[in-house]
Automatic annotation (TrEMBL):
Residues 338-438 form the Glutamyl/glutaminyl-tRNA synthetase class Ib anti-codon binding domain. InterPro entries: aa-tRNA-synth_I_CS (IPR001412), Gln-tRNA-synth (IPR004514), Gln/Glu-tRNA_Ligase (IPR050132), Gln_tRNA_ligase_bac (IPR022861), Glu/Gln-tRNA-synth (IPR000924), Glu/Gln-tRNA-synth_Ib_cat-dom (IPR020058), Glu/Gln-tRNA-synth_Ib_codon-bd (IPR020059), Glu_tRNA_lig_a-bdl (IPR020061). Residues 455-526 form the tRNA synthetases class I (E and Q) anti-codon binding domain. A motif ('HIGH' region) lies at residues 33-43. It is an enzyme of class 6 (ligase). The gene is glnS. HAMAP family: Gln_tRNA_synth. One of its GO terms (cellular component) is cytosol. Pfam families: tRNA-synt_1c, tRNA-synt_1c_C, tRNA-synt_1c_C2. GO terms for molecular function: ATP binding; glutamine-tRNA ligase activity. It comes from the Bacteria. L-glutamine binds at D66, Y210. It comes from Anaerovirgula multivorans. SUPFAM superfamilies: Nucleotidylyl transferase, Ribosomal protein L25-like. This is Glutamine--tRNA ligase.
């Protein structure tokens, strides 16, 4: 893998301090997704941060499924998450499931009850909310708050045994109903959910809440630095309370950083699932999705994502990153890797009237002018070719250097041609051009007789392979689309499908092969729609962007 990031950040500084002071001999981080959807580029930020931090200090990183919510989770998501983490280039040290700790978590809850630090409460969810109070109004104590320990133990056991219905009872921590921090006003630790779990099946009908489960998961695994996003900052006192009152052997610390937000997309599994369920997109791996699977299918490389995550860095303040910055890293990576080739997205036929009818010649072209090692290829040329519809104008404005009647242009890797005649259909649409070529001007022969200003790409009509091209625009029109109304902001033109042609030698192209199409940008062979006789390309990015790093 590439060289390690050297830039410093506040989390790294904490780690350095903890190692220098001897607080920890080795650091352990974790990436803890809930398997309730596919990973997105925001998760990539967390993955890169956790894995590279541990790596830099010779520590460990575990992949842990935070699967404490049976109704939303699924093994499909577990599998996709594993695949995505690997594809991003990371190897976890251990693979854990929070649901494997349900028994230990239960025992700790019993421990809390015995200490008088937890109680079974019969208030409904709505009543609990009412009793909690607000930032300006203190909470009210539950009438069940002072239940005797024995009764709590018995009721909690009954909850586990399935004697009560969903919502009838909860287990709550007994902390402080007057705390200025709402999270500390007797938070719920366990709820009753009669539902099958993807891992534990029907073994349990009580499930721990995130705020209770997460610190214990970290403690069980010996995690030293539990890195999470800023929304959990106000939950940290509860995290510390759980660790302290459960008297766990290891004492993990929670550290928060700002989550990644990108322009013109949504970044939450819940919202992304809505886009999938409502068929706004073509599945979790739709190339317009900010999911890792979508970015992969579109043609983005793991190197580009890693470099992007390093560049955006780690901070404590909220910001929205311009999606063009990710594109910058994709271009940078593919510029070095993707062979150049020609594709015609909107074909216009050109007949070269002075080229012999049955002649076919092979022209040599380099695959990457910046990198000789990428070799050359042979492109066939004959009497009929396709050029791009937009490369011809019958009545051009000044400074138009492409093809128009009477003008001469260069065909990339081939000859100069001059347009002599425009053929139209009954509706006055241009359907064909008649041109002549000059054999003297063959590319690579050192012809210097005269210069032309325009260079067009083309494909040989006889041998070109038909292909479909899928061009993408941002899915969401609103730049900062973290609101709830994202479904009203869907861009109706986020996908454009074109039918054209690619060079004959592309018949060997396989799904996930990436190319730079002259003037059109970088394209990836689609994994889903490419068939034996049907090549489908996704545009990854166009060639140019106005975006500059450090702008
Ligand atoms: P979502 O709302 O998309 O489901 P989440 O935070 O609930 O996000 P988890 O599966 O719980 O998703 O997240 C796993 C890890 O990824 C957590 O540590 C979380 O902090 C981190 N993470 C999630 N979204 C982002 C983001 N946009 N930027 C950085 N880290 C993120
Ligand atoms: Mg979540």
């Amino acid at each position: 893998m590439e060289t390690k990031p050297s830039s410093s950040n506040f989390i790294k500084n904490i780690v350095i301090q903890d190692l220098e002071s001897g607080k920890h001999k080795e650091i352990i981080t974790r990436f803890p997704p809930e398997p309730n959807g596919y990973l997105h580029i925001g998760h990539a930020k967390s993955i890169v941060l956790n894995f590279e931090l541990a790596d830099e200090f010779k520590g460990k990183t575990n992949l842990r499924f935070d699967d404490t919510n049976p109704t939303k989770e699924d093994t499909e998501y577990v599998e996709s998450i594993k695949e995505d983490v690997k594809w991003l280039g990371f190897d976890w040290d251990e693979l854990y499931f929070a649901s494997d700790y349900f028994e230990e978590m239960y025992n700790w809850a019993v421990h809390l009850i015995k200490k008088g630090k937890a109680y079974v409460c019969d208030l409904s969810a709505e009543e609990i909310r009412e009793y909690r109070g607000t930032l300006t109004r203190p909470g009210k104590e539950s009438p069940y708050r002072n239940r005797p320990v024995e009764e709590n133990l018995q009721l909690f056991e009954e909850m586990r045994a399935g004697k009560h219905k969903d919502g009838e009872k909860v287990l709550r921590a007994k902390i402080d109903m007057a705390s200025p921090n709402l999270n500390m006003r007797d938070p719920v630790l366990y709820r009753i959910v009669h539902a099958s779990h993807h891992n534990t099946g029907d073994k349990w009908c009580i499930y721990p809440m995130y705020d209770y489960a997460h610190p214990l998961e970290d403690a069980i695994e010996g995690v030293t630095h539990s890195i999470c996003t800023l929304e959990f900052e106000d939950h940290r006192p509860l995290y510390d309370w759980i660790i302290q009152e459960c008297e766990t052997e290891s004492q993990p610390k929670q550290i928060e950083f700002a989550r990644l937000n990108l322009t013109n997309t949504v970044m939450s599994k819940r919202k992304l699932k809505q886009l999938v369920d409502e068929n706004v997109v073509d599945g979790w791996d739709d190339p317009r999705m900010p999911t890792i699977a979508g970015l992969r299918r579109k043609g983005c490389t793991p190197e580009a994502i890693r470099n992007f995550c390093r560049e955006i860095g780690v901070a404590k303040s909220y910001s929205v990153v311009d999606a063009q910055m990710l594109e910058h890293f994709i271009r940078e990576d593919l510029n070095a890797k993707a062979p150049r080739t020609m594709a015609i997205l909107k074909p216009l036929k050109v007949v070269i009237t002075n080229y012999p009818e049955d002649q076919l010649e092979m022209l040599e072209a380099e695959n990457n002018p910046d990198d000789e090692a990428m070799g050359t290829r042979q492109i066939s040329f004959s009497r009929e070719i396709y050029i791009e519809e937009e490369d011809f104008m019958e009545n051009p404005p000044k400074k138009y250097f492409r093809l128009f009647p009477g003008n001469e242009v260069r065909l990339k890797h081939a000859y100069f041609i001059t347009c002599n005649e425009v053929i139209k259909d009954e509706n006055d649409n241009v359907v064909e051009l008649h041109c002549t070529y000059d054999p003297e001007t063959k590319s690579g022969t050192g012809f210097t007789g005269r210069k032309v200003k325009g260079t067009l790409h083309w494909v040989d009509a006889k041998n070109a392979i038909p292909a479909e091209f899928r061009l993408y625009e941002p899915l969401i029109l609103d730049e900062d689309s973290e609101g709830e109304h994202f479904l009203e902001q869907i861009n109706p033109n986020s996908l454009e499908v074109l039918k054209g042609y690619v060079e004959p030698n592309m018949k060997e192209a396989k799904p996930q092969d990436k190319f730079q199409f002259f003037r059109h940008g970088y394209f990836n062979v689609d994994t889903k729609y490419t068939m034996k006789d049907q090549l489908v390309f996704n545009r990854i990015v166009s060639l140019k962007s106005s975006f500059k790093i450090g702008k």
